[in-house]
Each structure stands twice: as structure tokens, then as C-alpha cells.
Amino acid sequence: MKLNIFNTENEVLAALAAHFVKIAGESIAKQGKFSVALSGGSSPKKLYELLASSFKNNVQWDKVYFFFGDERNVPQTHPDSNYLMAKKALFDPLNINSSNVFPVDTSLDPKDAAQRYEAEIEEFFEDEELSFDLILLGLGDNSHTASLFPYTPVLHDRTPGVKEVFLQDQQVYRITLNAPLINEAQHIAFLVYGGAKAIAVHHVLEDDEDIEEYPAQLIEPIVGEIQWFLDHDAASLLSKA
User: Fold this and answer.
1) What is the DSSP string of 27-82?
2) What one-character DSSP code corresponds to residue 13?
3) Distance between CA atoms of 126 and 138, rounded to whole angstroms?
4) Interval 50-63 mean pLDDT
5) What architecture is domain 2-231?
């Protein structure tokens, strides 16, 4: 694991954008394509806008294939849709071909949507390991990542896959890559900034293991590498930073 800590939010975003470009270039040079699973939320939106502007000429975008680490159980036209956010911030500005984008089919019921998405991922990788070149992750105040929320059954999955997750407190479903699938990735990058995330960062990185309470502790790549991109505020409670 590598911690990358910067003074400002903009420096964090620029560093992760450069990391994205580097891995994309290496993957395309090696295998002719680059597979990435995107995260949702306001922080990655700024990253995608940066990639679509300052870094737009640094990637062979026609060889990038986009998946989603998780999705809300809403129509793809809904304001809360991770797909819609990425479409507006990244796909449309870069004129990404729709055949390169793999959204979750939220027109299905959550269980069927999860099963269909898992099948699409398996089809994409054919007979290879289900190993994304890069998975982008955020971190919630409650130490969740993707849609791996505290005290949900998906936390105990042992086989790589995609699952529906019901959030009791919100009475909503989400669809998520599970931890075993995330951990197959070649590269995993957490994007976390702001003082509001400092406690969660400390819990995940320095507290004793408690995956029910701090689900992001489940993210430990098997053969790949994991890097955290943080600002000083988010890292302020780390003793080893």
C-alpha cells in the first residue's frame, strides 16, 4: 500500500489523474485495452472533469472500457445515477463510444441487475481472470466503499462477483462489485479528501480489523497494488502519515 498525501484538493485530483493516465498507457501498450471501474459521488466527478479537459489528449480513449464499481438502483436518467454523472462529466465531453461503456441495467430488479452485470464482466474478460486494470474507489464517512456498507451480507462474500445490497436505513437497493472481485484488480486507487473523511481514513488504515464496522478494510489486492490519494485534512488523524 502506498499513501500519496498532498496539500490541496486540486493537487490530489491532478495526481490521481496522472496515475490514471500512466496505468492506461501501460495497459494499452501491453494488451491493447484498458479496463477501469469508476466510482460515483462528488469527488470522482471532479476527477472525471479533469480527465476530460486537461488530460484529454493523454489517453487513447477508444481503447478504454468503462465499468462501475457500484450503482444506485435508479433509472440511468435519474440525478442520483453514477452512470449519468460519468456520462456528463467524462463520456460525453470525450465522445466515448457507447460500446466502450458498461452501465448497470437498473431497469431490472436489483438481483437480476447484479447477475446480469456479473455476466457482462465475465463476458468481457472471456477466459481470463476477472481483473480490472484499475478500480477507483471513494470512502464514505461510515467507512464504506463502493456499496460495501457496514453490517450488510455482501461483506462476507468469498467468491468474486456482483451483488445487490439493501440499505435498511434508507430503504433502497444498490448494486456493487464485491470485495473479492475488487481485490482481483491490478491497481486500486482510493480518492479521499477533506477533513470530514479523516476519522474514516484513520479507522480503515490504522484501527484493528473490524470489517462489519469498517468495510473498506476488506480492500486488499491479491496480486495488484493499492494506492491512496489523500489531502492533508483527510490524512490528519493518521499516526504513520
Assistant:
1) HHHHHS-EEEEE--SHHHHHHHHHHTTTTTTSS-GGGEEEEESEEESS-TTSTT-H
2) H
3) 28
4) 98
5) 3-Layer(aba) Sandwich (3.40)
